[in-house]
Each structure stands twice: as structure tokens, then as C-alpha cells.
Amino acid sequence: MTILSPRATTSLASGGDLARERDRLLARYSITRARTESLAAPLSAEDQQLQSMPDASPTKWHRAHTTWFFETFVLEPAGIDVVDSRYAYIFNSYYEAVGARHPRSQRGLLSRPSAAEVSDYRRIVDERVARLLSSAAGDRLARALPILELGIAHEEQHQELLLTDILHAFSESPLRPAYRPEATSSGRSPQPDPLRFVPRAGGLLEIGARAGAGFTFDNERPRHKRWIEPFAVADRLVSVRELKAFIDAGGYRTPSLWLSDGFDVVRARAMTSPMYSSYEDGRLTVFTLAGARVARDDEPVVHVSYYEADAIARFLGARLPTEAEWETLAEGEAVRGNFSDGALHPQPASSAQDGLSGVRQLFGDAWEWTQSSYEPYPGYEVSGGALGEYNGKFMVSQMVLRGGSCLTPRGHVRASYRNFWHPRTQFQMAGIRLARAAPR
Fold first, then answer.
1. For labelling alongside 374, which of 45, 186, 306, 349 has CA 20 to 30 A away?
2. How many CB atoms lie within 10 A of CB 296?
3. How far apart are CA 434 and CA 440, in angstroms?
């Protein structure tokens, strides 16, 4: 997952422009912090304590860690005392430069501070941030605002993680609880539109965040040229119907469809369908944040690893797109779709989603695996200090995903945004888009 970057800053002017930027970011800060609390509201104190696997964190920890970020990187440099010096050890995530930290795999053992005490911690830090920025001016304000904006983006990332992590925790419960009950499916399973491939000319094209385009993480820059051969991309995400065809054909038992490492994972996990699902008698039952239900044939496949996405694409006579192909397709498209302010599960493709390129579901619904390794763009430089740690040092053994999901905050993604996970990861809301070389 993209974490933090010291160069993810906004260009700041002085005087009135600086004051307006402060007011804009303070409003966003308030909205973002309130939204985290709204996401946690359906959860009991016991729910917020759960850590169901080492890769996940308790809801309470997400709420506290994001607060610790603002305290550590906004308040402390301004000379404001910390709320509790022990919190630096408990709620530091990966910042080696900050100091020692509690083991990630043991976050579920932190019964103290309580969920109520974390609420108090959040309130105190929010009051101090508002007071600091309301009184700051000049260089002091100019230094604080980029870190504030970075912290807002960081908290948005943890809002998505809060949902993916509680989904995993609830999936482990024999009660199979719902985070947010929704209207149950009628059981009818409409057939998806046939996959249609949209051709693209390719060429020497630019990718990466444009200068002056607003907030971006440093791994989205610098903008640079890539040669892209002519290609074609599917107009929607791979659906449950295509997944069923893969399973019915013995896809999880056919080594020739899989990368070697991927088939090792299939055997080790005894995989027969994507995570949170089971397949029997032609019905795919899925566990969602609304509880268990039978999946519709026309909804997108999710909770697949890169290895599964690659194998299913190969079975369907296609491949995954590169991140450069994906970005040149998405650039210029409006960021619209099913995000976390809508349904908390991917929805079937709709003609209303048609973009300028004729491709649907580019944003929202499901993160889309690409075949691109997560690596630095030409000219990328890692900054020093704690805030420089968490993009560059993850640029190995990860694959890039694009587009955002139904658990992503709507304003968080853009065409240049690079998410990344290890290829075996299944618990994220990741799906599949197909690509092919253009006919010659």
C-alpha cells in the first residue's frame, strides 16, 4: 500500500494565498477525521480490538496511528508537547528514524489505551492542530501545511485499510457478522455484457503526475516518457461469470495457467476460489461487509491475488495491462465510479460509466492488478528523514495496482496514483482488467 512521501507537497504561496490554503486544508482535515470516526462507529470496542492476521491492524490502532502521525510530524516540530510519550512506541508503524515500535503482529494485544481513550487522544490532537494552524503564519505555516496535506492523504489510506481489515476479522467469526447490512440480493443472476476490447494506438507517451496538478505522492513522479506498443483493453472488469468458467475448467488445478510461484501458493493454501468465497453447484457465495450472499454473475471478481489475476487472464486468452497502458487510458477521464461513499462491494458494469475511451469501471469498484513491478520512475529520488521512508524502500517484490476500489475514499485516487501489494495478497479489494496486444 502507498504510505507516505516527503515530496507529496502542495506549492504554497504567501500572504492571502497561504491563508486560503490553510483554511482549505483545515476544512479537509476536519472532514477526513470525522469520516474515520464515522467508519468506526458501527464497531464495538471489542470489534475495534480485533487483529485477525499479521497483515491487518485493529480499527482502534488505525484511529490512533493516524492521530500519532499528526502529533509527531505537525505538532512536535512546532514545539507542542505530546499527549503521552508511550504512544510513539505503540502507534509508530514503519518509521525507523522515529525510534523503536511495537511489533506489528501483536497490535491486537494492545487492550490499552482503550477505544474510548483513543477517542480522547484524537480529540486532543485535533484541537491542538486547529489551534496551531489558526495562529501560525509565514514560514511556520508554510512548513506545516504540506505535512498536514500528506497526513490527510495518509489517513484516507487508513480509512480503506480499516474496512479491509475488519472484513477479514469478521470473516473469521463463526457468526459471520455484517459491518453494514444492506438490502439482500434477489438471487437473480443477470449475465454480464460480453467483454469488448477497445483498441489503443500506443506510441511514445508520457505517464506520471503532471507538475502543478495538485497533491501527489512522490512515487507518481517524475513525469516521463514510455514507449507503448499498440494494445487493446477490456471495456469492463472480469465478472463472476468468467471466474466460474475458469473454475469449471479446472483453472485452480492447471499448472500451465500459473506462474510457478503462484501455483505454489495455490497448493499451499488449497485454493479453489478467490478469498472470502466458496463455489458449489454453480453458485459463488461471497462474504462481504454486508454479510454472506450469493454473487451475481455480472458483478466484478474481487479478492484475487496477482497470481490469480494473471492465471485467469491467461485462461481468457489475454493478459493484465501494464501500468503505463492503464494510465494513458485513464488520463483525462473523470474520476467517477463506486467508491466508499456508495456500495461497499463492487457493482456490475453500467453503460452510465462509459468514459471518453469507451472503457468502464476505470475508477472505483476494484483495484486493478497490472503486470508492472513496483519500481522507481526514471529520476526518482528518495528523501532523507522519517517521511522519506515509505515509498522508496518498498520498491521490490511488489506489483502495481491502479484505479481505486469501492472501499477507497472518492477524492483519494487519480490517473497517476500507484497502489502496490505483494503478488500473493488476496485480502485487498483487487480485481482484474484484461488487455491484449493489438492485432497486427
1. 349
2. 22
3. 18
